[in-house]
Specification:
With 326 residues, this protein is of the alpha/beta class. 47% of the residues lie in helices and 11% in strands. A six-stranded mixed beta sheet has the order 5-4-3-6-8-7, sandwiched between helices. The structure holds adenosine monophosphate, FE2/S2 (inorganic) cluster and zinc ion (ZN) (2 copies). One zinc ion (ZN) binds next to helix 1.
Length: 326
Amino acid sequence: MKCRVCRGPAVIDVRRHNANFCVEHFIQQCERQVTKAIDAFGMIAPGERVLVAVSGGKDSLALWDLLVRLGYHAEGLYLGLGIGEYSDESGDYARNFAVTRGLVLHEVDLRRDFGYDIPRASAVTGRVPCSACGLSKRHLFDEMARQGEFDVVATGHNLDDEAAVLFGNVLRWQTEYLARQMPVLPAGNGFPRKVKPLVRLSEREMAAYCIVQGIDYQVEECPMATGNSHLGYKEALNAVEDQSPGTKHDFYFGFLERAAAGFRQGLTQDASALGSCRDCGAPTPGDRCAFCRLVERTGGHHRTQDPNGASPGSETAVVLGRRERS
Ligand code: AMP
Ligand code: FES
Ligand code: ZN
Ligand code: ZN
């Protein structure tokens, strides 16, 4: 197996591109794919401040690494979800990465800062954990972006994730979701822009990237997500991809290029301006946002205030060393 670029010994085959790469050229290939996604969808402009949501898993750590390599100002945000050992470990991986690279990591801990965790939220709402989890993540990513004056929030969703979500939405013809499934959600109504710069890279490539870069990541998946349909869709798509490499890419990018606009036409736009949540100030159509209502239902509390009276948000920002980027 020879590297497509230098003909030296290759360490990975990427069947979708019908190519093998050595370590150096594989890293270059990943950088190129991220750059291509960022440019094609206008994800991040030079000089913008990026907040990377880091879970401690391979995708978000690889994303953080790649954005910094590409010269972006990228700080991390880790949310402690309170899912037992899984969360304790994931936090360690995120912190360790930040410390060894001298990067800034902000931390919010649901239990410490709001008095609830995902298992409790799931129990009181009677819904699957991923529902309260998704709501909490979206709210806290947005809040940190506002408070830290970040232009954009980046998540580690990769090609496999996006193709699986698309597959699920198509199977049930969830046209509203199809209309909104984009690698970039523009800023608006008080919300920051959201981007997924790894959409051109697969899960397997992200695992390989972490290995060749010596990035230690949490391999274990969230125990609360086992058995959810998303994993089944991934398996089904993997079976097809195995038979016919490139199918996943064509499915997802074909949708973006040839079908997504059609679904967006049918989208019901709510043009009414949003007000501010009376408890936390987040944009919301009602009087209080869904996050504050969730916190109340769990018996949690408003964000723990810093006794030193630091500015909102900074009280929970654990800043783990800072290196001036050259
Ligand atoms: P998931 O929904 O778990 O597949 O995660 C998708 C993306 O959300 C990850 O790639 C991260 O960017 C982000 N994310 C997931 N969990 C966390 C977390 N605990 N803290 C911060 N970001 C997270
Ligand atoms: Fe959200 Fe598992 S990470 S429920
Ligand atoms: Zn090479
Ligand atoms: Zn609120």
